[in-house]
Amino acid sequence: MKVGIVGFAGSGKTTVFNALTGLKAGVGGFKDKVNLGIIKVPDPRVDRLAEIYKTRRKVFAEITFVDFAGEFKKSGLDAKIVAEMRQLDALVQIVRAFENPMLEHPPQPLAEVESFLSELILADLIPIENRLSRMKKEKANPRERELIERVKEALDEGVPVRKLGLSCEESQLLSGFRLLTEKPMMLLLNVAENALLDPLPANLVEYAGINLLKLMAMCGKIEMEVAELAAEEQGEFLRSLGITEPARDRFIRAAYELLDLISFLTAGEDECRAWTIRRGTTAQRAAGKIHSDMERGFIRAEVIAYKDFVECGGSEARCKELGKYRLEGKDYVVADGDIINFRFNV
Ligand SMILES: Nc1nc2c(ncn2[C@@H]2O[C@H](COP(=O)(O)OP(=O)(O)OP(=O)(O)O)[C@@H](O)[C@H]2O)c(=O)[nH]1
Ligand SMILES: [Mg+2]
């Protein structure tokens, strides 16, 4: 999964990037550099399975973060950056809610979110308008033409494509454009140190609800310091501030919800591993996540729910005795925490 950290200059993008990745990219002074960082998604189930199978080889799901710089010049979003943003699975807009001495204006979270949306809309209008004018010359498929016109109308009115409630088929027709306003998006309110435990501003909560955006708050500066501490010191430091868990963990959960992702597990003496899939994925498609041969030659899936496996003391035989071991066919919808062994034939 590739997540872009976007937003206006000085909103604290790189600070948040450091907090999420534990890296130490330079902050402040409007650095003009794209940072890339990969994190492993902590999953205690993988740790536990590795103990049961006595293996040291643990593989976790990963999230790649891209921290953009200088997105917002006077003339709008930079075309090169827009092109890179189009490749991402989700966008996280960092919204400034702290006083930044390098910027003149005080924080105005809602206004900042609205004007960033306008920039995204302008960026999406370019390919849509180009397509429309080409369609007028060619004989276009009427379904596609109607769709493109509807998208253009929405964008003209300031409505992100995400809100149009498109069908699967319509999304498919638009997929080549990789529209920014269609991407799942989260607002991350970057709050001042003294506002750490304040409730989220009501106007922003309302706005996020209407526009199908996920919303969370953190203090980037503090969380960046936390990420620099050794793991065993982090808990204590957070507790002293009244924070229950690192923002990174909250963020990962929110991102999985945002993208409707779950994990299934594979376990054995050679390796224990978490695989990320979209909720609703069938067993056969899930097999393809591991290897295309497994999907093509799919026979069946042997499934034990993680919870059952642990309750049976990590014994497959015991799971079988208690009827917790299931054989599932290709259309079985995989559940979060399923431990799966795929049978296949190529
Ligand atoms: N007080 C406070 N300052 C913060 C917080 N987050 C970031 N800052 C400060 O804001 C300034 C800008 O932070 P950056 O993380 O570099 O912001 P950015 O969005 O990456 O900036 P550009 O890359 O230049 O667009 C730095 O001086 C940070 O220390 C915060 O939560 N509280
Ligand atoms: Mg930066």
Can you walk through the features of this model?
The protein has 346 residues and is of the alpha/beta class. The protein folds into 2 domains: 2-257, Rossmann fold (3-Layer(aba) Sandwich); 280-344, Roll (Ubiquitin-like (UB roll)). The protein is 41% helix and 21% strand. The chain is built from 14 helices and 14 strands. The protein has helices at 13-21, 44-52, 79-86, 109-137, 142-156, 168-174, 202-210, 220-228, 231-240, 247-258, 283-290, 292-296, 306-311, 316-321, and strands at residues 2-6, 35-40, 58-59, 62-67, 72-73, 76-77, 90-97, 185-191, 214-218, 261-266, 272-278, 298-305, 326-328, 338-344. The strands form 4 sheets. A 6-stranded mixed sheet has the order 2-4-1-7-8-9, with helices on both faces. A 3-stranded mixed sheet has the order 3-11-10, sandwiched between helices. Helix 7 (202-210) links the parallel strand 8 (185-191) and strand 9. Helix 4 runs antiparallel to helix 5. The longest helix has 29 residues, at 109-137. The protein is flat and about 65 Å long. It binds guanosine-5'-triphosphate (GTP) and magnesium ion.
Kindly list the characteristics that best describe this protein.
346 residues; alpha/beta; Rossmann fold; Ubiquitin-like (UB roll); six-stranded mixed sheet; three-stranded mixed sheet; 21% strand; binds magnesium ion
Global morphology: flat
Count of helical regions: 14
| Overall structural domain count | 2
Structural class by helix and strand composition: alpha/beta
CATH superfamily caption of the largest domain: P-loop containing nucleotide triphosphate hydrolases
Report how far apart the termini are.
Answer: 29 Å
CATH class of the largest domain: Alpha Beta
Question: Residue ranges: pLDDT <50 for 5 or more in a row?
Answer: none
- Could you describe the largest sheet, including whether it forms a barrel? 6 strands, mixed
Rg calculated over all Cα atoms: 23 Å
* Average pLDDT over all residues: 93
What's the architecture of the largest domain in CATH terms? Answer: 3-Layer(aba) Sandwich
Give the % helix. 40-55%
Q: Which fold name is given in CATH as the topology of the largest domain?
A: Rossmann fold
The tally of strands reads 14
